[in-house]
Design a protein that fits this description.
- The protein is mainly beta.
- It folds into three domains: 80 residues, Thrombin, subunit H (Beta Barrel), CATH 2.40.10.10; 72 residues, Thrombin, subunit H; 61 residues, Cholin Binding (left handed beta-beta-3-solenoid).
- 4% of the residues lie in helices and 39% in strands.
- It is built from one helix and 23 strands.
- It has a six-stranded antiparallel β-barrel. Strands 1-2-7-6-5 form a five-stranded antiparallel β-sheet, with helices on one face. It has a three-stranded antiparallel β-sheet with strand order 14-15-16, with no helix packed on it.
- It starts with 9 loop residues before the first strand and ends with a strand.
- It comes from Streptococcus pneumoniae.
- One of its GO terms (biological process) is proteolysis.
- Keywords: Hydrolase, Protease, Repeat, Serine protease, Signal.
Length: 275
């Protein structure tokens, strides 16, 4: 079948997204997508991060044996990217509350097929019912929103939108309960990011797929990564003290000649001395 379809997904790691399994596997034709691409933060006129091919698609094969209109907990998929492009966009956290979420405020952000344009939409309402496996709500959605993350006020992903239509209808998501999280974590563990990564001209440092921030001692060299994880270079003021970082990101010490002037940086701590 030579056709293309659209859906939505959410970053949970800089190189990992979660979506619905029916976005990547069609139960009517019993076929899996030949290729899947992610176009993060797309607008009708711009693809600011570009079009990125998904390296690997993972979902539970039991989903292939379900009926096309069946609401199933297997309707969950994980997308793995080659590069951690999510570093430029931000990620949703995974839930730390697995209790009943009825009455909890929830938001869906995705790309419903209002028309052919790629336009992100967001709507929020309370969870009407939590069955333990599914979250029910009356948040407005359309086709194309399938796979969108359902997240709480702490920006933690609590479900993945899988069914629903127009305003006033009872829509539903696969809840990220213990079973769903076990599947997601099993995939993440096999695709850990570690070490330095150059993303759109900026260096980031990862440990176990977690972007590091602040002071980092790597191979006996000190680096400083800002709150977004970006490696800093040149002069940087940290906690009221000035430091100089080489183009490689390494912290300078001792005498340093910078743009026509000499500076002395503490031999141990690297902070600039005056007086």
């Amino acid at each position: 079948m030579n056709a293309s379809f659209r859906g939505s997904a959410s970053f949970i790691r800089d190189n990992v997204l979660v979506t619905a399994a029916h976005v990547v596997y069609d139960r009517d034709s019993r076929t899996e997508a030949d290729s899947v691409y992610v176009i993060p933060a797309a607008t009708p006129n711009e693809n600011p991060v570009g079009k990125i091919k998904v390296k690997e698609v993972r979902y539970l094969k039991e989903f292939q044996n379900t009926a096309s209109n069946e609401l199933t907990t297997y309707d969950l998929a994980v997308l793995i990217l080659e590069e951690p492009i999510g570093a430029q966009l931000g990620t949703l956290g995974l839930p730390n509350n697995l209790g009943n979420l009825s009455g909890t405020g929830a938001t869906i952000t995705g790309y419903p097929a209002v028309n052919s344009a790629k336009q992100m939409y967001t709507d929020s309402k309370d969870i009407v019912k939590d069955t333990g496996d599914f979250l029910m709500y009356q948040i407005d959605t359309l086709g194309g929103a399938s796979g969108a993350g359902v997240y709480d006020s702490s920006f933690r992903l609590i479900g993945v939108h899988v069914s629903g239509s127009s305003a006033g209808q009872m829509n539903s998501a696969v809840k990220l309960n213990e079973k769903a999280l076990s599947f997601i974590y099993s995939v993440i563990q096999g695709h850990s990011i570690d070490g330095w990564k150059l993303i759109s001209g900026t260096w980031y440092y990862y440990k176990n797929s977690t972007k590091q921030t602040g002071w980092q001692k790597i191979n006996d060299t000190w680096y400083y990564l800002d709150a977004s994880g970006k490696m800093r270079t040149d002069w940087e003021k940290v906690n009221g003290k000035w430091y100089y970082f080489e183009s490689s990101g390494s912290m300078a010490t001792g005498w340093k000649y910078v743009r026509g002037k000499w500076y002395y940086l503490d031999n141990k701590n690297g902070d600039m001395k005056t007086g």
